[in-house]
Design goal:
There is one protein chain. This protein is an alpha+beta fold. The chain has one domain: Protein Transport Mog1p, Chain A (3-Layer(aba) Sandwich), CATH 3.40.1000. 24% of the residues lie in helices and 47% in strands. The protein is built from three helices and eleven strands; from the N terminus they run H-E-E-E-E-E-E-H-E-E-E-E-H-E. The protein has helices spanning 3-23, 105-115, 174-187; strands at 31-40, 44-53, 56-60, 67-71, 76-80, 86-94, 120-129, 132-143, 147-158, 161-170, 189-190. Strands 4-5-6-10-9-8-7 form a seven-stranded antiparallel β-sheet, sandwiched between helices. A four-stranded antiparallel β-sheet has the order 1-2-3-11. Strand 9 (147-158) and strand 10 form a beta hairpin. The longest helix has 21 residues, at 3-23. Mean pLDDT is 85; it is low at 5-28.
Length: 192
C-alpha cells in the first residue's frame, strides 16, 4: 500500500469516526467538539471542527496549525496560533426568545465599553457569518499604562441567540491577524 493510499484510509477512518460520533450527540451530550476533514478545492484537505451546543450545530475551519479548545461552562471556544501572539474566541449566548435577537449597535457599544473600561472604539462595520449579517467593532485599550491592545469583536445573531467573536492582540500585530479573523467568520456555519 502506498503512503498516499494509507493517508487516504486514515482520513476516511477519521471522517467515519467523526460522522458516527456527531450523529450520536443528544441533549444530554449538548457540548461536544469534534475535528473533521473539510475538502477545500483551492487548498485540499484541512481540519475543520464541529461544535454542538444545546442542540445547535456550529462548524468552522480555524487557521492552519492553530489549536482549538472548548470550555463548556462558558460556552466558549478559543483558537490560538503556536506562537500565542493573538487569541480568537467565540461565545454562544442562547436567549430563548423564540425569535432571532436584534443587534442594537448602541447597546453593543455600551456593553463593550462596560466590559473594557477605558477602551476607545475606532471602527464599527457590518460583518457576516453563516450567511447572516452582524455588527463588528474595532477598539483599542491601553493596559499597564504602556501596552496598547487591539480588539475586534463581532456579534452575529442566529435563531436561538447571539454568537460573539473576539480577537485580542497587541496594537502592532493587529493588521497581521485581521484576515485570520475574517476567514474564521467566513468559514463559520450554523445548523445542518
Amino acid at each position: 500500500m502506498t503512503d498516499r493510499a494509507a493517508n487516504k484510509r486514515k482520513w476516511l477512518w477519521l471522517v467515519c469516526l467523526t460522522a458516527f460520533c456527531c450523529s450520536r450527540v443528544t441533549g444530554a451530550e449538548a457540548h461536544r467538539l469534534f475535528a473533521h476533514v473539510v475538502t477545500i478545492p483551492e487548498r485540499g484537505d484541512v481540519t475543520g471542527y464541529v461544535l454542538y451546543v444545546q442542540d445547535t450545530k456550529f462548524s468552522f475551519v480555524p487557521p492552519v496549525n492553530w489549536s482549538v479548545k472548548y470550555d463548556p461552562t462558558r460556552k466558549a471556544a478559543t483558537i490560538v496560533p503556536p506562537d500565542l501572539d493573538v487569541g480568537i474566541s467565540f461565545v454562544t449566548v442562547f436567549e430563548n426568545a423564540g425569535s432571532k435577537p436584534e443587534l442594537n449597535a448602541q447597546r453593543l457599544r455600551e456593553k463593550l465599553l462596560e466590559r473594557y473600561p477605558g477602551a476607545m472604539i475606532t471602527e464599527q462595520f457590518k460583518c457576516y457569518a453563516s450567511g447572516k449579517e452582524g455588527l463588528a467593532f474595532d477598539f483599542e485599550r491601553v493596559m499597564d499604562e504602556e501596552v496598547r491592545v487591539a480588539f475586534r469583536v463581532a456579534f452575529v445573531a442566529f435563531d436561538d441567540g447571539i454568537i460573539e467573536f473576539e480577537m485580542k492582540t497587541s496594537h502592532d500585530r493587529f493588521s497581521k491577524y485581521h484576515h485570520a479573523f475574517g476567514n474564521l467568520l467566513n468559514s463559520f456555519r450554523i445548523g445542518p
